[in-house]
Each structure stands twice: as C-alpha cells, then as structure tokens.
Design brief:
30% of the residues lie in helices and 28% in strands. With 324 residues, it is of the alpha/beta class. The chain folds into two domains: 2-132 and 290-320, Medium-chain alcohol dehydrogenases, catalytic domain (Quinone Oxidoreductase, Chain A, domain 1, Alpha-Beta Complex), CATH 3.90.180; 136-266, NAD(P)-binding Rossmann-like Domain (Rossmann fold, 3-Layer(aba) Sandwich). The strands form three sheets. Strands 3, 5, 6, 7, 8, 15 and 16 form a seven-stranded mixed β-sheet that branches. Strand 13, helix 9 (251-259) and strand 14 form a beta-alpha-beta unit. Helix 4 crosses helix 5 (163-174).
C-alpha cells in the first residue's frame, strides 16, 4: 500500500501567483502518466535558466497558474507510452521539454515527447547533463542552425561567461571559429579556459572600439535598438546578428538593418532531437562541458532563483532531485 501511494504522487516546486522567489513552494502532485509517444522520466537533475525566474516573476512565455517551472531534464526513463521505440525503462536520458508550453521539470517526475531526448553521455553525471539542454540548444541553434558558423569566422559572444554564453564559446570553437567574448575582467581566465581567443571587459572597454569585421554576433543582452546598434556596428557587411531575447523590434529598425546588408534573427529555442544529440556528441568528444555555479536540492528552488537573478553567476545553476 505504501509503494502505491509513493508511486501515485510526486514532489514538485509550484507557484500559485507571480512574484519574488518566495512564491515557490514544495507541493505534492499526482505523478504524470506518459501518453502516446511520450516517456515518463524520473528526474535526477534539472537546470534553472533565466526564463524560469522571468516566468516566476510574471507571465512571460507561459501564462498559467498554478505553475511548475523547469525545462531542463536529466534522469532515468521510468515508463514509455505507446509508440515509443527510442528508449526503454532504465535508460538514462537528457533533454529539454518543448519550449515554452511543455514546462514542468522542477519535480520528481515529468512526461515529455520521447524525441525531445537523447541518451545521456556516459562521461558526465546527471547534474552536468541537467545543466545543458536549454542553454546548449539555444547556443547550438543560434550558432550552427541559424548562423552556420564556419572555420575562421570571427564570432562575438556577449555575456560569454553566462549560461548560454559559456556553452556558445565552446560550440563556436568546435566549429573552428575565432571567438571573442564579453565578460567582466574577473571572468577572463575562465573564458580563455573554454577556448576564447579574446576577452573584453564590458565594464571598462567599449567593444565597438576593440573589435571589427565580426561575422556573427550572439546577443543575449540588447533590449533596445540603441544597444543592438552597437553590435551591428562591429559586423561586417553580410554578417549575422542573432538575438536570443524575444523583444519587439520596430519595422524601421529591421529595414535599416537589411539595408546595411546584415542578417538579423531572433531565436526562440526549440526542443530538437537532432540538436540534443549533437550536444551529446560534443560532450562525448570533450568539446563541450557545462560549468556549474551552484547546485541546490529541489526544495531550495527559491535560493536557486535568487542566485540566478543576481546576474553575476558563471555558467549554470542546477536543482538536484533527491530520493529517487
């Protein structure tokens, strides 16, 4: 009888309202059941990303309450739904729940389409794997799928020591690019350890005066036209600016960018089996690894959010699910 009770419910971090990290509470919820083409994953670790604390504070990409946040998953397949052929119970997997509406990995169990996952690389643990999916897919889809970075190209990565940024540095290097990253001076050694060729202290140096003839800019910081204009200024004609911030853009600004011969794209990350497998392959060859700023037990999700919101972390924050 006890086993049935445990199997029927799970711990999760939920919120009934938007607000500060204190709105996050541990609750008991029914354990989900995998549907057609879905797998049930016993979560071992789940990353925390800016989109988590943005959606906690206000309805951004997910507009529903109560809400269990979390898109990153690393864990063990508990059960499979009808139609699944890629995985079996007991397989270790990692992936990203379909963004934005497939949210809910900050819990002991989660269901998701099987093809949002790949087998977890054997050389890393669940905490490392749980840090990767959303941030690494964002970087990969921006640099590889969108910008098609080529060997020898000059790539500028803003916030290069952050969650997406530090993975983007490694992915760009794996493509043979010359990589320049912006970060505070204290993080320059870290960037060089990832393979960055140059590091610019954004606090003391105007990057528009320090670099030129850039082929690709990965922008996670520019919220307005004035900020974007600075990145556009260092791009060569024919270059590409990829923003990962889904902010509205004035049509006149878009027209001006196009007249300058620059390609501008706004990317919103998608669950992608080919992408997550490519990330797994990079991890397996040693070309990609997540740096962990901190790991918290699931019950301390509010602390993880508070740390992330400081904007001063290096790499990723992860929630560890205990008791599995």
């Amino acid at each position: 009888m006890t086993n049935t009770t445990i199997a029927a419910t799970m711990r999760a971090i939920s919120q009934d309202t938007h607000g500060s990290p204190e709105v996050l509470k541990e609750v008991e919820l029914p354990r989900p059941v995998p549907g057609l083409n879905e797998i049930l994953v016993a979560v071992r670790a789940a990353g925390v990303n800016p989109t988590d604390w943005w959606n906690r504070a206000q309805a951004m990409t997910v507009d529903r309450l109560p809400l269990v946040l979390g898109w990153d998953v690393s864990g063990v397949v508990e059960a499979v739904g009808t139609g699944v052929t890629l995985f079996k119970p007991g397989d270790e997997v990692f992936g990203m729940l379909p963004y934005p509406h497939g949210v809910g990995s900050h819990a002991e169990y989660v269901t998701a389409p099987a093809r949002a996952f790949a087998h977890k690389p054997a050389g890393i643990d669940h905490v490392q794997a749980g840090a990767l999916p959303l941030a690494a897919l964002t970087a990969y889809q921006a640099l590889v799928d969108t910008a098609d970075v080529q060997p020898g190209q000059r790539v500028l990565i803003h916030a290069a020591a952050g969650g997406v940024g530090h993975l983007a540095v490694q992915i760009a290097k794996s493509r043979g690019a010359y990589v320049i990253g912006t970060a505070s001076a204290a993080k320059h050694d870290f960037l060089r350890s990832l393979g960055a060729d140059e590091a610019i202290d954004y606090r003391t140096v105007d990057f528009t005066e320090a670099v030129e003839d850039i082929d690709v800019v990965l922008d996670s910081v520019s919220l307005d036209a004035a900020a974007r204009a600075r990145s556009l200024a260092v791009l060569r004609p024919g270059g590409t600016l990829v923003s990962i911030l889904p902010v509205p853009i004035d049509p006149d600004e878009l027209a001006d960018i196009a007249e300058r011969g620059i390609r501008f794209e706004i990317l919103l990350v998608e669950a992608d089996r080919a992408g997550i497998q490519a990330i797994a392959d990079l991890v397996a060859t040693g070309a990609l690894r997540a740096h962990l700023e901190a790991a918290f037990p699931l019950a301390e999700a509010a602390k993880a959010h508070a740390l992330g919101e400081t904007g001063r972390t290096t790499g990723k924050i992860v929630l560890i699910v205990e008791g599995q």
